[in-house]
Amino acid sequence: MKPLHAFLVFLLLTLSSIAAGIDSLRRTNYHAQSVADQALQLTLRQCEADKIDADTIRVYRNLITLSAIQDTAYIAVSFDRTINQPILKAHTGLTFRRLWHLSDQRASASLASLALLWLVISTVIISRRKKSQPTYLQIGLLRYNPDNRRFSTEDSEVHFTPLQHTLMELFLQAPYHRLLQKEICDTLWPKKPDASATLYTLLRRLRPILENTAHLTLTCERGQAYQLTQKP
């Protein structure tokens, strides 16, 4: 499972949850408004259309069949420009919070729970997969696995002598794969006063291996430092 695919599934479930919630709100609001409009029409048949008083409001609310809006619904006068005269309009008086409680959000909640569950499961799977995969240090074609201390390319494992192996570990772990000559000598031959000749021999034998297996080379900087680089 790739992280991108896991995220896309989570995003799809989240958007579906939001869409389901909005759709439920719209359906609930439409139903409440339809009940309010129907009650207004029945009220106008029983009462005087040009007179709105306490009795009209009482009749109007008694005719509302949806108990959730009986205490909040009201009638307002608005001006209709199409007919150029005022008209009566029914309003549910529902707040967003009240509308949310009235709507059926079970589908939205189920999708949201599924999205959260997917997020947790996919995160655990991806984390475990990353932990199970070795973390390589790499330059060019050469890779080093710190867990088993092995060097390899895409084709096969690269074998070094013990001294070459230690030196290559130092290069792979050093910033910019650069080491001072003194640093190398002090690490490989700590008791030898002058190991520059021995280092030269070690590097001379190491260069062909790097060039042939990993297309790498060791460059010398004024006899004071060496850097492991890719061959041009």
- Number of extended strands: 9
How many helical elements?
A: 7
Helix content: 40-55%
Taken from the alpha-carbon principal axes, the silhouette is rod-shaped
Which stretches are low in confidence, meaning pLDDT under 50 for 5 or more residues running?
none
Helix-strand pattern: HHEEHHEEEEHEHHEE
Strand content: 15-25%
The assembly state of the depicted protein chains is single chain
User: What is the topology, as strand order, of the major beta sheet?
Assistant: 3-4-5-6
Return the structural class.
alpha+beta
Number of domains: 2
Termini separation comes to: 37 Å
Biggest sheet details: 4 strands, antiparallel
**Rg from C-alpha positions?**
39 Å
The overall pLDDT average reads: 88
Any descriptors?
single chain, 232 residues, alpha+beta, Arc Repressor Mutant, subunit A, 2 domains, 4-stranded antiparallel β-sheet, 3-stranded antiparallel β-sheet, 7 helices, 9 strands, 54% helix, 18% strand
Question: Can you tell me about this structure?
Answer:
The chain has a 4-stranded antiparallel sheet with strand order 3-4-5-6, covered by helices on one side. Strands 7-9-8 form a 3-stranded antiparallel sheet. Strands 1-2 form a two-stranded antiparallel ribbon. It starts with a helix and ends with a strand. The radius of gyration is 39 Å and the shape is rod-shaped. Helices cover 54% and strands 18% of the residues. The longest helix has 44 residues, at 3-46. With 232 residues, it is an alpha+beta fold. α1 packs antiparallel against α4 (106-132).
